[in-house]
Each structure stands twice: as structure tokens, then as C-alpha cells.
Amino acid sequence: MRFFQRHLTPVCGAIVFVTAFGFYAASLPPAQVPGDPGEYTFIPWVLGIAHPPGYAFYTLLAGLWQRLVAIGSVAYRTHLLSATAGALSATVVYLIVQRLITYRQDAMSAREKENLATFTPWQLSRQLAALFAGLSFAAAADVWQHSSHANAHILTLLLATLSVFLLIEWWRTGRDRWLYVFALIAGLSPTQHLLLVFAFPAYALFIVLVRPRLLIQPRRLLPLIGCFALGLSVWLYYPLRSPTAPFGPTDITSLEAFIHFVSAEGLRVNLFHFGLADQPGRFSVFVELLKLQFAVISLALVIPGAIWLARRALKPFVLGMVFFLTLYAFIINTVQDVMAYLLLPFMMLAVFIGLGAWALIEAASTVTFRVAPRQGITIAALLALLLLPLARFIDTAPRISFSTYTTGADWVNALVDRFTGKGEHAVVLAPWEAMTPIWVAEYTEGRKLAPADVTPIYVTTASANPWLDNVFAHLHEGPVYLADYRRAVVEGRLFRLRPEGDWPLWRVVPPGDTTVPPLDQPLNVKAGGIEVIGYSLDRTSIEAGQTAHLTLAMRAAVTPTRILMPYAVVGGREYRWTTDSRLLTTDWLPGEVIVERYDITVPFDMSPGEYSVTLGLSDLSAGRDLELTVPLPALSVSAPARAHIDLDRSRLADFSAQIGLLSATANGTPTSDPPATVTVKPGDSIEVWLGWQAQQQVDESYTVFVHLIDGSNRLIAQQDYTPMGGAFPTQLWLPKWIAGQSVSDPYRLIVPETLPPGEYFLEAGLYGMTSTRRVPILDRGGGLAGDRTILFRVVVQSD
After folding, report:
1. Is 638 in contact with 608 (CB distance < 8 Å)?
2. CA distance 370 to 354
3. CA separation for the pair 597, 579 (Å, rounded)
4. DSSP state string for 325-361
5. Are 628 and 527 in contact (CB under 8 A)?
6. What is the mean pLDDT of the chain?
7. Who contacts 241 (Cβ-Cβ below 8 Å, separation ≥6)?
8. How confident is the model at residue 373 (pLDDT cuts 50, 70, 90)?
9. How many angstroms separate the Cα of 643 from the Cα of each of 94, 485, 490?
10. 3-class secondary structure per residue, 269-327
11. Which residues pair with 717 in a beta bridge?
12. Cβ atoms 43, 247 nearer than 8 A
């Protein structure tokens, strides 16, 4: 018992770390992750320089980690660093709460000192409250996701958490060694990310409150400055490494270039994006995101925890509140990397949650009970409270795991299989998300694509139409492909895009191209002047909730005068695709081979079994189907292997079995069937709230569109945005939305001052952030029901 008493804090800290690390490690991807995580993988390995602000401290630490912790691939080792940093952050949250509950021994009553000196249930209660805080933070989805793949932001969290802990320890003990270590960590912080500078006012105010005379005590102040400068010295990495960096800018050799780079000057357009009138909405967004991290019972403890800290330890209360408010005000008004930045205010709220648990237990101790029963009830209550984060761990694990996530490696393998040894001198134009896996393979695995076969080109936003510009720039080199569909290349009708392969590349061809692409099955069927040349179906075995992709090659001897569209019937469910992002038949050239790709999404409620698939052709201009029935391979449907959420039958829309629109309000009026009416005047705003739910891990970054249209579908006003004002992207590196998460998402449309009185409509939907292709809606029968939903009838009255 004495051993347990002496080592109770290390034991509880180990419980937090081992629990968190165990769940995080089990959910790590086995291979690289596209996007920024890919960069965070290969940059440390080659000691290059990452995108602004560079993350110098992360680069050096991760580079050392990758060489010392030689477990698996370089990508997996880097994921493992994130799991370790996340688990350590949760452990430090536990320590902060534990220290604040015990606070300074010179402020304790005689009875409290006696309880600390001897092992008692009361002492155990203190530990359990702190344990609850650490585990609650570890189980938060945002912390978990950033602890499950290579990223610099989880290290930013660890530095902030350590800084708060070191200041609390200095305050508790009065020993300056803790302050000096804090100064070192504070110096390292800007070299990691300038976001951490927004915590400096809280740190400085706390130090002045604890020791007001520090500024006039050179014997203490000079070592403090020295430790801070030592941490800042990591910034020397940029001018020293930049001239010879194998990847990244090579010109960070002047003070001006250095400041421009570390301040991420080119990204400042994303900062302070919202005005004063937007703040109530931004606070609502924060609350929505907060509810995804902690149980409602836990959130209810925040205010009691803050009050308890203000009453018992005012200086740490000031530290915590200024830290939270400063970072909250900056982050919630930013539109990029918001979920990564919110890790810091979430951390401080986890501290208040733990203190709130202790505050309630301490308040309950004033009730007149005999000592033994009271302590027993206290421990039982805290143990019951610990079930909340443990239940969240168990519930979230199967839905958040990336243990089978191989998207980055699959993409590289697809390129290798498609081009290696072919000698095509092809060019693949790729965005950041598609280029980083190629760089990871090249720099950490030695798998470099031969220029004689294919050359990947990273397309930046350096011009008004970078994709079209790059097509023109590389046409003379060989066949040009895009890594994903880009509407800008085809909008001017200068080029066509042809999907090719199961992992689709989009080949750029000129209008009138008559070559027939490779297809799984040739055909020779005609209807309405259209000839279906052949098709490819990328899968015939599919899980409910997944999507099969049908590629069709078609042509017409003469340009059709009507709009004709194929459709499919799967086991009685019709898939009538929309014309969005497709070349209409009225624009086909005589004899031109047109290749289009169509999605067949199997709804979650489709029972396992074998389903027939037939292809038809519809005349949209005449509103009738043509006499064409082409049998395709049957689809074998199995039960979904991954966790998903069944949407309520009353939902407004099911977007491709991934995201459900459950509710909508406009100016406080809920939608209905038929759509409810909202009355406004010119110049008024329409405040729209959309209630979303993720059915499964979302595999693409989507943009939400909310449009005010007239009866002829003409656009009157719009707001197209990443969900939650940019704060909560559906994907972006790894899925941010996981199965079961529900959020209320705000939008505001301004009715034009010059809009004539009359009847209008409010529509909503989703489209791919990069492709701009709209996401199809599945009807209640599992078939396609268009790509938008009409939410409200809007009546505009005269002034």
C-alpha cells in the first residue's frame, strides 16, 4: 500500500498514456496519408523545409524520431510519433488537473496535508478526477484523429500543454527551474508554429501575477531570456539548411525572406475572416464542434470547474481563461486548419472539466454523512464518471480507425502499374493531395517514376486558371492526364476529359477525338442516334454503402438535337444521373468518341444478395425512355464491414450514402413537406441552419451550396462554403467526419436590394471541393433523386 501511495501519480499517469496510446496505435494507417501528412512524412526524412511556417522544431524532432524508432516504414514511424505526442498531451492534461487539485501545500488545511501524507480514499478521489480529465481529452475525436496520422499540429498541442503544466508546477513549488524549462519550451514554440504566440499573453500575465518583481531581478531574468533564446535557435535551421535543401524554398537567407516565410505571409488571407456580426454564429459553430469532443455531462462540468479554480487559485484561473479566450478568438475566426488549431482551447476546457468533477465531489463532501460512506460514495461516483471516456473510446474506435487506410500507397501503385515500362512520356497534372504520396514514395522508399514513362507535375494556384495553363504548357511532351476531374479544363470546350482505369486518371483529348479507349467489354448497341461502344465496371462485388463506377464510351454519327442520358437499373432501383459536369449530347461532334464515368451507389438498406444491372437511355428533352436495355454484369452486394449509421426515414436527403441532411431552418422556420414558406424583403438576410449527419467516413472534401433561385432555376443569391464556415471539412487529409457525427451548420444569404417581389426557392446540396461535381441524392427507394433538395419557398415582399 505504501508503494502504491508513493507512486499513485505515476500509476495514474501511466494509465492515461497507455490507454490513449493503445487506442491511437491501433488506429494508425499502415502507409502514407495524402496531403499535408505526406509532407510531414518525407520532409523530416530528407531534412527539407515544409510549407510556411515551416515547422522547424517538428522537422528536426521527427527526423530524429524516424531514425531512432525504426519500426516499419518511414510513414508508419511518423504516424507513431503522432500517437506518442497525443498520448503524452493527454497525460500532461491529467498532471495539470492533479496539480491544481492539490495546489500548493502551504495553502492546504492540516486535514488536507494529512490526507496527502497517508493514503486515503479522499486522496484517491483527487487522482480519479484528474484521471477523468486526461482520459476525456484523449477520447476526444479531434485529438484522436490528429494522433492517428503524421502531422505537426499534435506536436503544437504537446508544446502548449507542457507550457501550461510547467507554469503551474512553478507556481506550486516556487522553484525557478520549472520556469527555466518553461522558457525553453516557450522559445521552441514559435519555431513550431506561430499559433503558439497567441498563448504568450496568458503566460506573461501569469508570470507577472505570480512574481511581479521578476522584471527587475536580472539574476533570474537573464537565465530566463537565455533559455528562451536557446529554444528560438531552432529557427537557425532555415538559413543554414535552405541553400542546400533537397525540398522546399532555397532562398531563406535574408531577414526579410525569413520573416515572410515563418509568418506564412501568403496564407494570411485565411486569418480574421469573420466580422463582429458573425460572432454569435461562430460561437454556435464552436459549441457544435465541442459537442463532438466531449460528452454533454462532461461539458456541464466546465463552468463549475472554472468557478472552483477562480475561488481556490485565482492566478491559474487567469492563466487558463486568457489562454482559452485568446486562442478561441483567433482560431474561430480563421478558415483553414481550424480543427487542428482547436486542439489548444479543447485542451484547456478538458482541464476545466476535470476541475469541475472535483468541484462537485468537494461540494458533496459538505453534506452530512458519516466519513466512510461519504468517501465510498465519492469514489463510486468518480469511477462511474470514468465510464464516460472509456465508453467513448470503445464506441469511437471502429468508426475512427484508419488501420486499413491505404489511399496514398494505392494511388502511387496505380501510377506505377499504369505507366512503368510503357515509354509514353506522359504527364500527370496533380494537386497537392496527389503529389505528396508520390514524393513520399520517392524520398522515403526510393520509388521514383521514370520520366520516359510519366512525369508528375504539381499544379499550384499561380494563375487564374492553373489547370488549363498547365495543359497547354505540357501538351507537346506527350499525353496529358489529370489526377482528378477539373471542370476548368473543359469549360471552354477546348478539351475533353476521359476517365481511364479503375483508379481514374482523366486524359486530356481534343474535341472530335475518335480513338476508342481500352474497355472491359465492347458493345455495338444503338438508340436515338447514339451508339454505345463499350463499358467498364470497376467492381461486381460491393458492400452496402459503397459505390461502383461504370465507364461508358459512346458516339453519334451526327450531333444529336436532343439531350440524351444513360441510366441504370439495379435490382429495380433506378440510377438516373444528372447532367452536371457532363458533355451534353447536343455538343458532341460527329463521330467523336465520348467517355463518361457514372456512379452506382448501393444504399445501406440494400439486403445482401445478387442484383441484376441493366443499362438504358433516356431522352431528357422529350421526357421519355428509349427502347434500349443492355444487360451488365450483376452486382453481388454484401453487408458493410465498417460501422455506419442508418438515416432516419424522415431525413431530407441522403447524399450518396455518406452524408444525410436531417433538418433545415430558415430564419427560425423549420422545413416541411411541401417546403415551408419564408417571407422576406429585399435587403433582408436569410439565416439558414442545416443539420448534417455522417453515415460513414467521408471519402472526399465537399463544399455545401445554399442557393436562392427563381422559378426558372436562375441563381439569385448563394453561399458556397466548406461546412461550419470552413471549420469542419468533411475530409481533408483524413476524414474529419466520422460515422454518427451530427452538426448544425449555419449559412447566411442576403436578399438583393433590387430583387423584384415574387416567389423564389431555397435549395441546398453538396459538390466536390476540387471537382465541383455535385453529390447525387439517393431517394428512399435507393435510386437517384437528383443532386439538390428544395428546402423552402421564399416569398419576397415589397418594402
Report:
1. yes
2. 26
3. 12
4. HHHHHHHTT--SSHHHHTHHHHHHHHHHHHHHHHHHH
5. yes
6. 91
7. 47, 48, 49
8. very low
9. 31, 29, 38
10. HHCCCCCHHHHHHHHHHHHHHHHCCCCHHHHCCHHHHHHHHHHHCHHHHHHHHHHHHHH
11. 708
12. yes
Which residues are CB-contacts of 767 (< 8 A; sequence separation ≥ 6)? 702, 703, 705, 773, 774, 775
669 phi/psi in degrees, rounded to 5: -90, 120
The distance in angstroms from the start CA to the end CA of the chain is 79
DSSP character string of 353-418: HHHHHHHHHHHHTTS---HHHHHHHHHHHHHHHHHHHHHHHHHHHHHH--TT--HHHHHHHHHHHH
Whole-number Å distance between alpha carbons of 137 and 135: 5
Reference 121, options 350, 307, 369; nearest CA is: 369
CB burial of residue 54 (10 Å; 0-12, 13-18, 19+):
buried
Which 8-state DSSP code applies to residue 5?
A: H
pLDDT, tens digit, 9 for 90 and up, residues 426-472: 999 999 999 999 999 999 999 999 999 999 999 998 788 999 999 99
C-alpha grid cell, residue 402: 484508419
Which one-letter amino acid corresponds to residue 130? Answer: A
φ and ψ at residue 153, rounded to 5 degrees: -70, -30
Coil, strand or helix: which one is 253? coil
Calpha distance 571→579 (Å, rounded)? 23
Of 133, 178, 151, 175, which is closest to residue 12 (Cα–Cα)?
133
DSSP secondary structure code for residue 73 in this structure: S
Phi, psi of 696 (to 5 degrees): -155, 175
550 bridge partner residues? 537, 598
- Alpha-carbon distance of 633 to 668, in angstroms, equals 49
Pull the grid cell for residue 480: 496529358
Cell numbers of 438, please?
Answer: 508520390
Omega prior to 121 cis, within 30 of 0: no
Residues contacting residue 236 through CB under 8 Å, at least 6 positions apart: none
SS3 747: strand
696: its cell numbers: 460513414
Query: Is pLDDT above 50 for 372?
Result: no
119-156 residue pLDDT tens: 556 677 888 899 999 999 999 999 999 999 999 999 99
Distance CA 786, CA 620 (A): 13
d(CA 342, CA 505): 36
Contact 552, 600 (CB under 8 A): no
> Which tens digits make up the pLDDT trace of 715-773?
999 999 999 988 899 988 777 899 999 999 999 999 999 999 999 999 999 999 989 99
Cα(40)–Cα(66) distance, integer angstroms? 11
Convert 355-384 to b/e letters by CB count within 10 Å (16 or more is b). Answer: bbbbbbbbeeeeeeeeeeebbebbbebbee
Determine how β-strand 715-721 pairs with β-strand 609-619. Answer: unpaired
Rounded-to-integer distance, Cα 21 and Cα 84, Å: 6
All three cell numbers of 730 = 468533411
- How many alpha carbons fall within 13 Å on the CB side of residue 222? 3
pTM of the predicted protein model? 0.93
Report the amino acid identity of residue 475: L
Distance CA(165)–CA(106), nearest Å, equals 19
Other beta carbons within 10 angstroms of residue 99's beta carbon come to 20
3-state DSSP assignment of residue 442 = helix
Count the neighbouring beta carbons within 10 Å of the beta carbon of residue 266: 10
Q: Cα(741)–Cα(120) distance, rounded to whole angstroms? A: 41
> Rounded to whole angstroms, how far apart are CA atoms 532 and 556?
9
CA Rg, the chain, in Å? 29
